[in-house]
Amino acid sequence: MGHEFDHLMRLAIDEAKKGLLEGEVPVGAVLADLSGRILAMAHNRPIALNDPSGHAEILALRCAGSILKNYRMPGTVLVVTIEPCLMCMAASINARITRLVFGATDSKAGAGGSVFNMASDSRLNHKIEVISGVMEDECRALMQDFFRGRRRDAILTDCGEVPKWS
């Protein structure tokens, strides 16, 4: 399942790895039109930007909005390595993206169907088609390896506990 999105997910994974090199939680996002033309790519940067909204999805939406000269983005697909949080799902709904594709679920904060299901909430004025599990193992491993390393570093430096990511 999801082979049609593998190319875009590989780009999102490459973005996530850029974030990893910068010390950010490794999440990558790619926004493309439905024909596959890439509009924007981004990775998490809340630490570098001192901005709690500096998530990969938000940064990709902002970039695409500038390029499209519009805050509405119907006919687009957002490909993300990890299931978006509430903030990122809300922004995606407000941007009117058509489809969300993600790799691994986020069992603590996911808003694309695991913890919350904003994408198809009947109380909201826009619905987003969700496709999950694209290159799931690779996306999950990237996050797990990152947090394992953070926990190991916390133990070595005695600077506190780092939460697990399942």
TrEMBL record:
It holds the Pfam family dCMP_cyt_deam_1. Its cofactor is Zn(2+). Transmembrane segments: none annotated. Its EC number is 3.5.4.33. Keywords: Hydrolase, Metal-binding, tRNA processing, Zinc. It catalyses: adenosine(34) in tRNA + H2O + H(+) = inosine(34) in tRNA + NH4(+). GO terms for biological process: tRNA wobble adenosine to inosine editing. Binds 1 zinc ion per subunit. Residues 3-131 form the CMP/dCMP-type deaminase domain. Gene3D superfamilies: Cytidine Deaminase, domain 2 (3.40.140.10). Catalyzes the deamination of adenosine to inosine at the wobble position 34 of tRNA(Arg2). Belongs to the cytidine and deoxycytidylate deaminase family. Homodimer. NCBIfam families: PRK10860.1. This is tRNA-specific adenosine deaminase. The lineage of its organism: Bacteria, Pseudomonadati, Thermodesulfobacteriota, Desulfobacteria, Desulfobacterales.
